[in-house]
Amino acid sequence: MEQPTGQFSLPTLVRKKMEKFRRKERDVRIHHRLSALLWLADGYSVEEVAALLGVCSRTIKNWLALYQKDGLDALCSLQYQGDPGGLTAAQLDQLKQQVATGRFKCAAQVCAWVEKTFARGFSPSGMRKLLNRLGCSFHKVSGFLFKADQEQQKEFIAEYEQDKSKVRTEGWRRYFIDGVHPLYGLEVVFYCWLLTGQRFEVGVGGGRKRLNILGAYCPEDQEYLDRRYTDKNLNAQSVIELVTLMLAKHPKVKYFRIYLDNARYQHAKVLKAWTEQIKKERGVTFDLKYLPAYSPNLNLIERLWKFLRKEALQKWHPTFEDMQQAVADVLDNLPKYQEQLQTLMTERFHLTPMASTIIVGVGPSGK
Hints:
The chain is α/β, with parallel strands linked by helices. It contains 14 helices and five strands.
């Protein structure tokens, strides 16, 4: 039997759960429902709660009845799905399939397709609401290098996982090496929320000054090392200087596994000759392991460069020296960003899709 409104109460655990839901809830409609029941449990009358929320008393009674009949999950679910605009379930499913091809670049294109296919008219704003209800969203597509070989990437990851045991049992150190080249004045454009109709303009420079950084990142203990240059480009000597720094910081290590991309200077004969000389003179092996071609997704340090751009470069710096200092403030203080990097610098690698499974452009299904 349902309780009279004046005698409504909530068990302690249910009340705590409801209060927790209300704190986290972003939808004001559900927030109002939870507040209504909590206030009723505090002894407020239906009329008082209705006045506080600006709704009619019948709405409060309906929320209470819904909770007493179907529970908290039903109270926190909005049953209204919106008008499908005269489209049947089969037509909505067909529309979703077309959206999945990536053929529509704006709501107006969807409106035109729906009108041509189903003879139903929509405004762009109405179509956006319908697409949201269908579980669609507007976002940037993800690009990948289609020449990448997925099987080679799988082989690399399998060997990489096997190398982990060598770090523990044989004292290996592993580093990902890559270069990044911040251009002064050309890294400041970024995405952000703005008011409708607002323009937010940032000044950009000519990009004639460039900072060249060759960095190394160790996945085991998150050590970061680098060499920075403003007067010369990265070359084989830059790599030698960086691995020499590794050797100085870890003089007892006899085996370094170095993961590199396929930049030409990283294949230089002088670099390979230097590693052979170090092995002969000091018994230290620098094993250069090259990533599969077109596979930046396998180079862990690429994620660090993305983080660097976000933290240091997507803002205006009055001088080139100021930009250098902003870069140094990030790279020289990575422990300060431990919380963000903990989830970013994980050893979970995304494989590039098989090119044969990707719809490029509209494709046959979009004609």
